[in-house]
Amino acid sequence: MLIQKYNSYFICLLLLFSLLNVLPAFSQTGSELFMENRCSRCHTIGRGRFVGPDLYNISKKYNKEQVNAWILNPDIIYSQTNKKPFNPGYPPMPQLGITEHNAELITNFLFNNKIQQQKENAGVIEGVLVNESSGKGTEGNDIYLKSFIGDRLTDEKLQITDEEGKFRFKDLSWVNSYSIKIKHEGLEYETAKMVFPPDQGSIDLKLPLFETTDNDSEIFLNLNHQIVSVAEKTVSIAEIYDYENRGNSIYIGKPGDDNLRRTLKFYVPENAINLKFVEGLDNDEIQREKTTVYDSSGFPPGRKRVVLTYEIPLEFGKNLINKDVLTNVSTLLLLVDDQNGMVDVSTLSELEPVTIENKKYKRWSGNNLKSGSNYVITVTNRSLSIKYIDLFPVIIFAVLFLSVFIIGLITRTENKNNVKNLLLRRDEIVKTIITLDEEYKKNSVNESTYKEKRYRLKNSIIEIDKKINED
Ligand code: HEC
Fold first, then answer.
1. In whole angstroms, what is the distance from residue 224 CA to residue 243 CA?
2. How far is the CA of 52 from the centre of ligand 1 (A)?
3. Which CATH architecture has domain 219-381?
4. Would you give the DSSP letter of residue 137?
5. How far is it, in rounded angstroms, from Cα 387 to Cα 392?
6. Angle at 140 between CA 136 and CA 146, to 5 degrees
7. Alpha carbon 392 to chain centroid distance?
8. Which atom of ligand 1 is least distant from the CA of 107?
């Protein structure tokens, strides 16, 4: 599994090397255009029939104008000759959308090249495998040649490098594409795909081979730039790391608890969301643990630029974004897009602001920061309080309105209850008067007591009536 993980990385790495080796061969403009405009996917020059006819003797068959017509628009030929396809046994040639200028250059190339007619399968891919630590060829290493038609793998041949580290694959078909795969110390390298240029019968390669090391003494972080922009609810941070492996071995790190190797590491705050590696690392090859993100891919000699982005959600008030330095760094630079004066950075020194593309950035920097040191970015979020201030009169008004309404409601219910009670009392007093009258008729009370009681009761009723009318 580890080997697979390394694989994609080295494909990219060796792509660069093989391009460097193969590209100078396309120095002739006509030849270059012949490759770039896909002619070579269907035609050879002097190497036999392919999808279309061999264009070796084309100047004997057509004049320049006619060849130009084929290149610009084969339908011109088809309508002139009333034959489609024109050459028996071939499909028609599609129109390719090539400019007149390029068509002319390709035509001149087809008429004026010095390409020799060749045997059909006579291509050669050869080269040397060089150990980058010693600068010498490596003997006895397995080299695989993979052959493709289109994207389909059609063949894989194995050779072992000789005492000078050399290898040579011959009798190769002109029309296939090829890549070279190397296995070394459990790592797999593979070059980008190559094809034979029309005027070149062999491809010569110099392939670098690196030893591996788990010692990080040659790994340096030259620079860490961070661009911090504050939005209403989040802080977006983009970070650029410029790493350098100054040794001559691939740095593969040491395995963690999960047995996956850990190479480069990056500090990312625990509450960071939407973490993305934009350049330099594969999002599938990283492991994130709390505040550290580890890479597991090997780091060959040379430089490596890593770009990552993430966001931190903002709370109301002060937000502290803690940043630990995990690898000694020569230059740390923070560019802060801060229109509202919300950001402050502790420990680092503040520089003059700069204007980049009409935007003003505050700057903080640190030199030769040691691993283990740290700094804090403080973002004060006042956007929420501003909203409250705007709403303040509305809130006060609402509170006042509500309290008046509630008090009114309470008094009204109280009054209602009062009247109800008073009426009940009145009823009771009336009943008492009736009973008193009956008792007097039966002579159960003497006259003076009766008069005195009745007078008091009547007064109570008058009092109650007064109260009811008041409410
Ligand atoms: C997709 C495949 C394809 C591509 C790409 C292609 N051709 Fe062709 N070409 C053909 C085929 C097939 C024929 C034969 C068609 C016919 O006879 O009607 C042909 C015919 C020709 C002929 C006439 C050959 C003869 O002997 O009569 C010329 C010249 C030619 N192509 C040049 C080019 C050039 C130059 C390019 C690149 C700019 C190009 N072709 C790209 C397929 C292709």
1. 9
2. 5
3. Sandwich (2.60)
4. B
5. 9
6. 100
7. 42
8. 35
How remote is the CA of residue 456 from the centroid of ligand 1, in Å? Answer: 130
Considering only CA atoms, which residue is closest to atom 14 of ligand 1?
52
- DSSP 8-state symbol, 232: S
| Residues near 143 by beta carbon (within 8 Å), at least 6 away in sequence | 129, 158, 159, 160, 161, 167, 180, 181, 182
Query: What is the model's pTM?
Result: 0.51
Pairing of strands 249-251, 211-213: parallel
List Cα–Cα distances, 184 to 198, 208, 251, 273, in angstroms: 33, 11, 14, 38
* Separation of CA 53 and ligand 1 centre (Å): 7
List pocket residues of ligand 1, CB cut-off 6 Å: 37-39, 41-43, 51-53, 55, 58, 61, 67, 70-71, 85-87, 90-94, 96, 98, 106
Give me the architecture of the 29-112 domain, per CATH.
Orthogonal Bundle (1.10)
Domain boundaries, the chain: 29-112, 123-190+202-210, 219-381, 389-470
How many angstroms does the Cα of residue 115 sit away from the middle of ligand 1?
A: 18
* Nearest protein CA to atom 18 of ligand 1, as residue: 85
How many whole angstroms separate alpha carbon 14 and alpha carbon 207?
A: 8
The CATH fold assigned to 123-190+202-210 is: Immunoglobulin-like (2.60.40)
Q: Other C-beta atoms within 10 Å of 259: how many? A: 8
**Residue 470 backbone dihedrals phi, psi, to 5 degrees:** -60, -50
Consecutive sets of 10 residues in the chain, 471 residues long: mean pLDDT of each? 38 37 48 85 87 92 95 94 94 92 93 86 93 86 91 92 95 91 79 83 88 90 91 88 90 86 92 89 84 88 90 88 91 86 86 84 91 90 62 78 83 77 88 89 87 90 85 65
